[in-house]
């Protein structure tokens, strides 16, 4: 079997196009332009690339970008004061604080200080609780992207055996909640799971969010399974260069799976598209407008 490629680039471009149209209609019909504030503290090179890409995507969607770059020496009190100012600013509908933060700052305290209505990363405990309770709330972007991708391969996830490898707060745990909401039967695995390959073999839908290059092997998969690879791992490439691989051994997995996301070009581009979607939804909710239903 050669797996069908779930093309995150095309699917995310389609979603971004829909968000851009919705932003245009908001501006034209209601005179409202969504605004997203991305806060970067310090000069972590990977974070700087993410923030640059986010700013570009925000501008392309027609939203307003309110980016704030603070020095690595910023105190927790100063960051909390900035969050309070952004919470109070009506032009700012979404706030994202790029993680990780420098060690003098308690990330949980900062996340909890964000107005839950503007928490477009979906990390605030109130949004986490709402999603876990089956209530509407802002959903973390990468898990939302995973589920949208899975639903391009299956019209319904109801009754499917889904296995999630990884239990982080930003990917594994929220993706489990979203899959439960889709009526999948979900197993979540982690570093203490016994006989991981056997558990993976049960999966009609496997989501890998581990952070270990090509860790999930082809023979761990059920033939025909759908594989969503969240991992982004830099490994040595040819000619002294590096390359990016996922958490799944792509070539092996492609000969067993029915559908699979590539890395790069799978989940990664969906994360930014879902950030735009969340900002657009947050803007509608804050203004009492119905949110367009396209994802
Ligand atoms: P994380 O916080 O480090 O969590 C990794 C999870 O994998 C943990 O739950 C850990 O288990 C589990 N794990 C580690 N080794 C394992 C093993 N040998 N067997 C089974 N489980 C194991 O990572 P994360 O933030 O969720 O990110 C995971 C990957 O996704 C990374 O490559 C990251 O770069 C990528 N990522 C991509 C995007 C995107 O936009 N595409 C967004 C976020 C993250 P324990 O809990 O037991 O330690």
* Largest sheet strand order: 1-12-9-8-6-7
SSE class: alpha/beta
User: Rg to the nearest angstrom?
Assistant: 19 Å
- Shape, per Cα inertia axes: globular
So how many helices? Answer: 10
Chemical compounds bound to the protein: NADP nicotinamide-adenine-dinucleotide phosphate
What share of the residues does DSSP label as strand, in percent?
A: 15-25%
Q: Helix fraction?
A: 40-55%
Poorly predicted parts = none
How can the largest sheet be summarized? Answer: 6 strands, parallel
Q: Number of DSSP strands?
A: 12
How far the N terminus sits from the C terminus, by CA atoms, comes to: 30 Å
Element order: H for helix, E for strand: EHEHEEHEHHHEHEHEEEEHEH
Mean pLDDT: 96
Keywords:
295 residues; alpha/beta; six-stranded parallel β-sheet; binds NADP nicotinamide-adenine-dinucleotide phosphate
Briefly, what is this?
The protein is α/β, with parallel strands linked by helices and 295 residues long. It is built from ten helices and twelve strands. The strands form three sheets. It has a six-stranded parallel β-sheet.
Textual characterization of the structure:
The chain has helices at residues 8-30, 45-60, 76-88, 107-113, 125-132, 141-153, 172-181, 196-201, 250-254, 267-287, and strands at 4-5, 35-41, 64-65, 68-70, 94-97, 161-165, 185-189, 205-208, 226-229, 233-236, 242-245, 259-260. By secondary structure, the chain is an alpha/beta fold. The strands form three sheets. A six-stranded parallel sheet has the order 1-12-9-8-6-7. Strands 2, 3, 4 and 5 form a four-stranded parallel sheet that branches. A two-stranded antiparallel sheet has the order 10-11. The protein is globular. The chain contains ten helices and twelve strands. The mean pLDDT is 96. The longest helix is centred in the first third of the chain and has 23 residues, at 8-30. The structure holds NADP nicotinamide-adenine-dinucleotide phosphate. The site of NADP nicotinamide-adenine-dinucleotide phosphate (NAP) has 25 residues, from helix 10.
């Amino acid at each position: 079997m050669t797996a069908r490629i779930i093309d995150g680039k095309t699917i995310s471009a389609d979603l971004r196009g829909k968000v851009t149209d919705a932003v245009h209609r908001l501006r034209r019909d209601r005179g409202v332009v969504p605004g997203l504030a991305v806060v970067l503290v310090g000069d972590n090179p990977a974070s700087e690339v993410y923030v640059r890409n986010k700013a570009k995507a925000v501008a392309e969607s027609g939203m307003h970008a309110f980016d704030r770059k603070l020095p690595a020496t910023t105190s927790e009190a100063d960051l909390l004061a900035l969050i309070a100012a952004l919470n109070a600013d009506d032009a700012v509908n979404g706030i994202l604080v790029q993680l990780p933060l420098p060690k003098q700052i308690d990330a949980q305290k900062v996340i909890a200080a964000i107005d839950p209505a503007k928490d477009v990363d979906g990390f605030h405990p109130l949004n986490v609780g709402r999603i876990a309770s089956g209530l509407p709330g802002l959903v973390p972007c990468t898990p939302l992207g995973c589920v949208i991708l899975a639903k391009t391969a299956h019209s319904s996830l109801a009754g499917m055996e889904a296995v999630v490898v990884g239990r982080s707060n930003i990917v594994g745990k929220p993706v489990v909640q979203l899959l439960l909401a889709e009526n999948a039967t979900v197993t979540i695995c982690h570093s203490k799971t016994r006989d991981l390959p056997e558990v993976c073999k049960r999966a009609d839908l496997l989501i890998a969010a581990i952070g270990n290059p090509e860790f999930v092997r082809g023979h761990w998969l059920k033939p025909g399974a759908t594989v969503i690879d969240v991992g982004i791992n830099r490994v040595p490439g040819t000619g002294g260069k590096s390359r990016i691989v996922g958490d799944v051994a792509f070539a092996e997995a492609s000969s067993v799976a029915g559908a699979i996301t590539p890395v790069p070009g799978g989940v990664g581009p969906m994360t930014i598209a879902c950030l735009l979607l969340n900002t657009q939804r947050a803007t509608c909710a804050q203004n009492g407008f119905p949110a367009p239903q396209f994802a």
